[in-house]
Design brief:
The chain has 125 residues and is an all-alpha fold. It has 5 helices and no strands. The protein has one domain. Helix 2 packs antiparallel against helix 3 and helix 2 packs antiparallel against helix 5.
């Protein structure tokens, strides 16, 4: 359903700024899905080892948990910024999408490239 909405928006005169925001949303979604699959695999791998101590469990999944928290905060911030953009557009305003893109790229800069590199490089459509 979401793809149909996006497609219809872009077929009926979607401006460059709107396309950029849709592509950004697609990139965030794709990166989040890739990360979630990796994170789930790490956690399942650690569970399968049946580690006995908390220290062993932290050693196994600690980095993934820290990265997951970092990604979660970055995505929450980026989504809030995109919602603000769309709200402003709906109100008839013309928000500065180039500045928004710069701000989102700044938020994403420290996230793992293997999951969010495409959006950081502008390769998402």
């Amino acid at each position: 359903m979401r793809k149909i909405l996006v497609l219809s928006l872009c077929l009926f005169g979607c401006s460059a700024s709107n396309k950029a925001m849709v592509y950004t949303e697609n990139g965030l979604n794709a990166g989040a899905e890739l990360w979630d699959a990796h994170y789930s695999a790490v956690i399942e791998g650690c569970r399968a080892k049946q580690l006995e101590t908390e220290e062993e469990r932290r050693g196994c999944a600690g980095k993934a948990i820290e990265t997951d928290e970092q990604i979660g905060h970055a995505l929450e911030t980026a989504v809030a910024m995109l919602r603000t953009y769309w709200t402003a557009k709906a109100a008839g305003k013309d928000p500065d999408y180039m500045q928004l893109m710069k701000d989102i790229h700044e938020i994403l800069k420290d996230l793992p490239d293997e999951y969010f590199g495409a959006i950081k490089e502008g390769r998402i459509k």
